[in-house]
């Protein structure tokens, strides 16, 4: 009886101080491992294709694509580091210690924060492109976007340090027993800075973009008195802008659907803890969003499909391949 009881503990030598093992059925555990491993692989590969495409082909050097590149880097980190570590959280016990438990959450907080801030920047870029196209080239320059991206990542690192500061000072202080991985964050601060402010900004900007896009579409249909050549150029430009806004709108909509449940959990004041099926599913949605973004690009961006073909066939290794026409 004693041997059976010890087998149910994470650390039998600690007895009363040890957590009990939260065993998953073998079929469920295998399904989780296969699912997470597959999504991790696809996320890394697909986002790496986005990173290589935008970094290699000079035609893709634009402020908007630089923001997409920054988003792809955060998604790449999610697939390369965060998802494999998530598999560890499905184990019956946390065996890597209290400090590693806190550090494990550090990179996800940076990557998730970067995704949110990048989405805000993408929304601002789309807003200026649609609502103020005449001043877009002067307001949204390559150098300004580079500075914004750099500040975005610096902000996310410091933000994550502040959010986890209490846990870093005394790792494991919120664990009820050994073998548990529980952290506590400043819920109100995180909710305002990571959810309410950025999501409100994104929604307001895209509502404005939608209204302007609809009015532009109506204007293009009714504008039949202009000179044919001038009309043709105008319509082409506006159609290009509207298509870009539509694509980025899909990306933002998917982002909101995947991230909102996670922040609703934060709104309830719950701790992040292993062994919770609901918590795992909500966190899984956040991870899955990193895999969905490149899929959206593949369906809606012709340049991405052309770039992938050139990468897979190794044509990018040819001299001057960076100057290839992919648009």
What does this structure look like?
The chain has 327 residues and is mostly helical. It has a domain at 61-287: Rhopdopsin 7-helix transmembrane proteins. The chain contains eleven helices and no strands. The longest helix has 40 residues, at 228-267. Residues 1-6 and 231-237 have low confidence and may be disordered.
SSE order, one letter for each helix or strand: HHHHHHHHHHH
Tell me the overall shape.
Answer: globular
**Rg from alpha-carbon coordinates:** 23 Å
Q: Major sheet: size, sense and barrel closure?
A: none
Mean pLDDT: 77
For this structure, the CATH topology of the domain at 61-287 is Rhopdopsin 7-helix transmembrane proteins
Number of helices: 11
CATH superfamily of the domain at 61-287: Rhodopsin 7-helix transmembrane proteins
- Uncertain segments: 1-6, 231-237
What is the CATH C-level name of the domain at 61-287? Answer: Mainly Alpha
Kindly estimate the percentage of residues that lie in beta strands according to DSSP: under 5%
CATH architecture term of the domain at 61-287: Up-down Bundle
The SS-based structural class is: mainly alpha
DSSP summary, beta strand count: 0
Q: Can you give the helix content as a percent range?
A: over 70%
N-C termini distance:
70 Å
